Amino acid sequence: MASDRPSLEHRRLPSRGCAHQVSPWRIRFSSALFRDVSARLTRHFVTKRINQPLACWVKPIPEIKMSEHTQSESYETAVPSTAFIGEIKRRSPLAEALAVIALSLGTFAFVSTELMPIGILPQMAEGVGVSLGQAGFLVTGFALLVAIAATPLTAATRHWNRKWLMLSLLLACTLGNVLTCFAESYAVLLASRLVVAAAIGIFWSTAASMAVRIVPQKHAVRATSAVYGGLALASVLGIPAGTFLGNYAGWRVVFVALAVLSFAVFIKMWLTLPDLAARHDGKHSTVSEAWRERPLRAAVYVTALIMMANFLAFTYIAPFLEQITGFQTSWIGGLLLAYGAAGLIGNFGIAPIMAYGYRPTLFVTMSVLIASLAALGFAGTNHVLVVALLLIWGTAYTALPVLMQTWVFKAAAHLNGPEAPSSLYVSAYNGAIAAGALIGGVIVDHAGPWSIMPISALLGIPALLIALKHAPK
């Protein structure tokens, strides 16, 4: 019985509004022919990337050419813009993940080296025959040098190949730790610390932007979180482990371990980091060009204020917990460990939350940090409440570096290269560490440990107001 439908030979594929028309295809139902046609079409469209519709029912795939001035407002593609990237050969997801992990381990090594003297300061002071105040300059002086040197040193190395720059920085960290463990005088000890300080300023200005070059743009925020995850990991694992080792084996052994760690990270970077040039066009934005951007200046101001508030309180958290809340000295290490563990949640959990909007996420995070600082001042000896507030504080604080770095990338998206804007952020961050410690010392000496919490909260309010007005959406 004849069918009312037209034969296959006379059918025409629907055009769906396409401007191109093709003649009917005569198809023979042969499996060999079907496989041959499929293979040819696959090679035609996948390997050659032709921008033509297939028989008018395949949508054209345009060749994407990113603009030098492209800015994305989505949280996934906010960092950095394609003006920062150039042409990068994509690698396998596993290779990209291993490279980002190497950068995160670099953060862990640098931050552990920077903050390690806090846990073993009395032993170091005794080892080189200086006072605790002089030994404390190993931390505050370190942060001051990073704040001063990050911008010019980053500018001086802006043309370096990114992989070889990272390898050089890890070698400097290794050398600095070796010099520290063999230092017999305060001058040599201070010089060894300054070597690492110079290197970490460049590292912080470069690591996040390199991470987002390694991965696809949709994973940019997650890559940034991974890099800053090394900071939280240093707080949870590095500093407590180093303090324990220093108490039982001596402070010099701690820096031997840090030297070994730094060299191990050097080897991992050598094996996993891709060979990335700086910028293919050789043109970089200067610090003065970056500073002229009002949103970037606002990001720097907010970073300086909120981090100063944080470190004003955190630097003197031990005497606050002992003298005001009534915790025994033996509890302090465990409380700080819990603080750092909560920080891991904040660091890695903030990226998906930003999908609901950058500005509200930043505003809520800063508000939570300020509120937790203020509440700690009035928690008294309620240990359960104090521990809960410490955990909330730790979660909010470690989310902020990811948020602020994202703001910097957004504000400078149309500039040539992220290093100059990032160096301003790094200078503000480390300057805030030093300023918070110095101001906090004066406050504690004159008003006692209790006062640091409400004063820190008050210092964070101007940062919150600036962010509310100038933060990107």
Automatic annotation (TrEMBL):
GO terms for molecular function: transmembrane transporter activity. The keyword Repeat does not apply. The chain crosses the membrane at residues 97-120, 132-153, 165-188, 194-215, 227-245, 251-271, 298-318, 330-350, 362-379, 385-403, 424-444, 450-468. It is a multi-pass membrane protein. Residues 99-473 form the Major facilitator superfamily (MFS) profile domain. CDD domains: MFS_NepI_like (cd17324). InterPro entries: MFS (IPR011701), MFS_dom (IPR020846), MFS_Efflux_Transporters (IPR050189), MFS_trans_sf (IPR036259). GO terms for cellular component: plasma membrane. Keywords: Cell membrane, Membrane, Transmembrane, Transmembrane helix. It comes from Paroceanicella profunda. The lineage of its organism: Bacteria, Pseudomonadati, Pseudomonadota, Alphaproteobacteria, Rhodobacterales. This is MFS transporter. The keyword Transmembrane applies. It is found in: Cell membrane.
